Amino acid sequence: MASALLANVLYSTGFVLEKRALAALPALSTRQPARVVGHLLSSPLWLGGSLALAAGFAAQLAVYRTLPLAAAQGIFVSGLVLLLLLSSLVLGERTSGRERQSIVAILVALVLVVASLRGEDARTVARTAPPATLLLIAVPSLAAGLLLYRSAERRARRRHRLPTAGVPYGVAVGLLYGVSSLAIKGVSGLLTTHDVPAAAGQLFRSPYPYLLLFTGATGLVLSQTALQRCRASVIVPVCTTVTCVFTVVCGTVAFGEPLPADPLRLALRLGGTAVAVTVLLALPRHDTPQPPNPVPTTRT
């Protein structure tokens, strides 16, 4: 629990620092990934945010070794409250009434998921997943995320189009990070201080480090480009919710962690997931354009 709460603080702080840094950088483009990375590495503030995220990643590894996937994700998403507070205080972002209602509904959905974590089945912590099952889930999910991001990019380049609120970007990046979460879970299960050479060989024979490498490099360019264009108070909750739902649903299948045996707890788990997905589908896809500032007139 302490590691999970620490991860929440680190992730929220890291995202806010990166968003502040991105505002001062030139416009990023996914068509020039090397330039994106160069601009990011030139910003001390962005490097500070990325270090906070890296520390959050280390705390996440500790959580996955001691908690089931569903329990861990439920705690991680509670960090949205801190993120929204920081985005308002530090970034000056304001969410609409409909967006605030949607975020509250997301938190309620995740409370339902956490409430389903009772009984012996909720304490079962799986260590590894069959590689074939993992890849059968990961490869189509990565393809879907990349295609969705590309589609959002095409729509954003059209003339006279309303500015995007970031929902498609958040869903796309959330799918990538969902696969990354499964890989982190697998890595955490193989880490050990006993017989380190054998453990390292087993790790590099598994798909986990290669999925982490791909999702880390791709997610860096896509997420930072999207975060520069859209409000953190929208894109991060959407991304986090997609990552959570994906990890709970697909991780339960891939790692074989059991669903609740009690019908009430099963209904809470499935109901919370359904509410979260429904809210994502109902979120507004565009920001309301701000009216232009009136031009002062002078009397002669």
Report on this model:
- With 300 residues, this protein is an all-alpha fold.
- It contains twelve helices and no strands.
- Mean pLDDT is 81; it is low at 290-300.
Give the structure's gist in a few sentences:
The protein has 300 residues and is mainly alpha-helical. It has helices at 2-23, 33-41, 44-66, 69-77, 80-89, 97-115, 131-156, 167-190, 196-205, 208-229, 232-255, 263-282.
Q: Determine the N-to-C terminus distance.
A: 69 Å
Question: Structural class, please?
Answer: mainly alpha
- What are the secondary-structure elements, in order, as H or E? HHHHHHHHHHHH
Annotation field: number of helices: 12
Q: How many DSSP-defined strands?
A: 0
Shape: globular
> Mean of the pLDDT scores?
81
Biggest sheet record? none
- Report the radius of gyration as a whole number of Å: 20 Å
Strand content: under 5%
* Unreliable segments of 5+ consecutive residues: 290-300
Q: What is the helix content? A: over 70%
